[in-house]
Amino acid sequence: MMLSLDHLLAQRIRREREARGWSIAALATESGVSRAMISKIERAEASPTAALLGRLSGALGLTISALLARAEADAGGSRVTRAATQERWTDPETGYRRRALSPSGTEPELVEVELPPGAHIAYPAASYRFLRGQVVWVLAGRLLIREGTQETELHPGDVLAYDLATPRDCEFNNPCGTDWCRYVVTLTRK
Known about the structure:
This protein is of the alpha+beta class. The chain has two domains: 5-73, lambda repressor-like DNA-binding domains (434 Repressor (Amino-terminal Domain)); 83-189, Jelly Rolls. The protein contains five helices and ten strands; from the N terminus they run H-H-H-H-H-E-E-E-E-E-E-E-E-E-E. The strands form two sheets. A six-stranded antiparallel β-sheet has the order 1-2-3-10-5-8, covered by helices on one side. A four-stranded antiparallel β-sheet has the order 4-9-6-7. Strand 6 (143-147) and strand 7 form a beta hairpin. It is globular, with a radius of gyration of 16 Å. The N and C termini lie far apart (37 Å).
């Protein structure tokens, strides 16, 4: 029987936590996510939101796409990711859709994101502390990115390269009330 991505993700989060010798309480302290929620996620009783995954992956020193890719690799990954077999993850809270384009473990990581009209996703600065670089390329729609107090609006074809020397809290917003925003993110680890 093939496990769903939610079950693979639950197992992977538990493995990453245990590999560090952390209790659920330690991960809760590092991530700011409650012990009860982490426990539910690890038992696959709750599907984590993008914001929660950002906090958990940041605490574990991983990008969200690396965490998802490792979960997918647990099912048997390879150097090639065929479009027809790429797992997709949807944030249960916002409907935000994310798919890892690059094979597990490769750099840079490429992630395609589809952000619903009016949706916003917030990530704490800790989500970026282990990254050397992040670039966002908008393919369709509009994207408003807030880094600390600085706002940048991007349109199709626009590219934003992050200054990760001093990571800041970040928020991705789709200011459009009717159209989805589609963009690609590249991530390079330190």
